[in-house]
Amino acid sequence: MADDASFIPYPEIGRGAQFHAYDMHNGRVLKIPLTEAETYLVAKDRRNTIAYDGEIKDWLSERVQTFINGKARIPAMISHSFTSGAEFLNLLSNPTLVRDYLPEDTPTKRWGAGRVTYTQDKLLMTHEILGQMADTKLNKTDILRVRQMIDGFVTSTHLFWQYGFADYVFKLGDTGFDDQGKLHFVDLGECTSDLEFMIKAVEQQRWRNNLDPSKIDFPQIPGELHDYFLQTLEKAFSPVLLRKLWRQKHDCNDCLKEDDIMNNFIAAKVAEIDYIDRW
Fold it and tell me: What is the 3-state secondary structure (H, E, C) of the chain?
């Protein structure tokens, strides 16, 4: 039997830009947020500077704040008071918030507004499936499987929109499949409830990053499926359809129609601040 020092109850199975993921050995995954310092390292690896108005500007701090803001929105989304919320939570891999076991922030180890820990169902991750197909010639079974993944992504995205929430990154690799083959969203820190922001995301066809090899954090769609992917998503993800589906199933106890000018003003200003660097 291993001594206590070497025993790891929940081995780490992955890490993204916002969370460490640990296997709980019970069909669930534990998500623990990266510290601010860890987030800086991830953001720097992915993008430190971008061209802006003809100049090169350092966006690292803004990018880090985007990641932190994304985590800060998760509790409100998980605990939203839908009158029938089981379908919504299932779409998000049945997340459950965990009490705050993290230590107090210090000058060298801070979580700030991103202090969010939760668990989710353990799924077969799409990025793992795509990774196994990379640099190989796909057979008919592989092609059918990827087509079904793309179709499932469309179906789940449409359902997400009906609840008034959306994945604004459109990263297919950050989804996963349960035992019944149903696609679920996993990366809860990249979701929004801002319709106007999502309309811009759809207009700019942000899902094309799944085909761009320069986007190293996007698991790539196999070349044989590029046309199918683009044609399917361009037809399914239009601003017109987004507006039509948005909040069709958003029946909850809290979100009454707003007629308070101050509330609307505050919400608009917060949205402006919130989306500094989501692209």
Answer: CCCCCCCCCCCEEEECCCEEEEECCCCEEEEEECCHHHHHHHHHHHCCEEEECCEEEECHHHHHHHHHHHHHCHHHHHCCCECCCHHHHHHCCCCEECCCCCCCCCCCCCCHHHCCCEEEECCEEHHHHHHHHCCCCCCHHHHHHHHHHHHHHHHHHHHHHHCCCEECCCCHHHEEECCCCCEEECCHHHEECCHHHHHHHHHCCHHHHHHCCCCCCCCCCCHHHHHHHHHHHHHHCCHHHHHHHCCCCCCECCCCCCCCHHHHHHHHHHHHHHCCCCC
Overall pTM surpassing 0.70 (yes/no): yes
pLDDT in tens, 117-152: 999 999 999 999 999 998 889 999 999 999 999 999
Residue 5: partners with Cβ closer than 8 Å, 6 or more residues away? none
| Cα–Cα dist 201/279, whole Å | 9
pLDDT confidence of residue 59: 75
Tell me: the pLDDT tens digits for 204-216? 999 999 999 988 8
State how far Cα 34 lies from the chain centre. Answer: 15
Q: Break the chain into its structural domains and give their ranges.
A: 12-274
